[in-house]
């Protein structure tokens, strides 16, 4: 007789295999090109078993995206550390976020494929159900730093967040091309890249005595 705990573990294993298979196939082929039959075959379960755990392919896709969001969202803990100053917080976050993107390449490509290729209505779903909370949390942490006087209050914290995330995404996507540029020597040094990124964000590119403000 199979014990309830064994059945529970078997269910968890099945769900994880389904999620892993869906993640791989969605990242490689895109949502529309992947069938539930293909996911079931790769996971080693029946199609009925997939629908036992997920009511639709869209629900399964959202579950995969939520898993990705949890991984990347964990990097926000680096920004919220109370014992460090804002420079250390931002650099720790930039390093952790880029490291997570590079270490989870399949998930990263899945996220980018979804962000770039989906219809407007699905983009709203991704923003509302998947990525919105993490982005709002990042903006909130930056705003707290502004209110404490650690960052300029006249800067839009959402813009700072977009620049941090966008710079890391560009590095991930373009690093194989960047390595062939003779002036780029940080492709294989992501921590150095993160340090330079935060330095530019915090200190800008103008000399200290040549500060100019862009109007508009």
UniProtKB/TrEMBL annotation:
The keyword Ribonucleoprotein does not apply. The keyword Methyltransferase does not apply. Residues 35-54 bind DNA. Transmembrane segments: none annotated. Pfam families: TetR_C_9, TetR_N. Keywords: DNA-binding, Repressor, Transcription, Transcription regulation. Residues 12-72 form the HTH tetR-type domain. One of its GO terms (molecular function) is DNA-binding transcription factor activity. It comes from the Bacteria. InterPro entries: DNA-bd_HTH_TetR-type_CS, Homeodomain-like_sf, HTH-type_TetR-like_transc_reg, HTH_TetR, Tet_transcr_reg_TetR-rel_C_sf, TetR_C. PANTHER family: HTH-TYPE TRANSCRIPTIONAL REGULATOR BETI, HTH-TYPE TRANSCRIPTIONAL REGULATOR RUTR. This is TetR family transcriptional regulator. The lineage of its organism: Bacteria, Pseudomonadati, Pseudomonadota, Betaproteobacteria, Nitrosomonadales.
């Amino acid at each position: 007789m199979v014990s309830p705990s064994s059945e529970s573990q078997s269910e968890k294993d099945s769900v994880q295999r389904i999620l892993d298979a869906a993640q791989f196939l969605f990242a490689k082929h895109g949502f529309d090109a992947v069938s539930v039959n293909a996911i079931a075959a790769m996971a080693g379960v029946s199609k009925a078993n997939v629908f036992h755990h997920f009511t639709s392919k869209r629900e399964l896709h959202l579950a995969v995206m939520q898993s990705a969001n949890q991984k990347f969202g964990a990097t926000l803990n680096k920004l919220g550390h109370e014992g460090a100053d804002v420079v250390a917080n931002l650099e720790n976050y930039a390093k952790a976020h880029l490291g997570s993107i590079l270490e989870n390449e399949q998930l990263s490509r899945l996220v980018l494929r979804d962000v770039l290729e989906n219809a407007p209505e699905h983009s709203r779903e991704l923003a509302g159900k998947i990525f919105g909370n993490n982005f709002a949390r990042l903006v909130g942490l930056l705003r707290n730093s502004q209110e404490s006087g650690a960052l300029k209050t006249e800067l839009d914290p959402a813009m700072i967040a977009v620049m941090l995330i966008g710079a890391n995404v560009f590095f991930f996507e373009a690093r194989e091309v960047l390595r062939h540029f003779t002036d780029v020597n940080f492709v294989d040094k992501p921590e150095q890249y993160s340090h330079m990124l935060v330095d530019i964000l915090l200190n800008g590119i103008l000399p200290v005595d040549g500060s100019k403000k862009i109007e508009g």
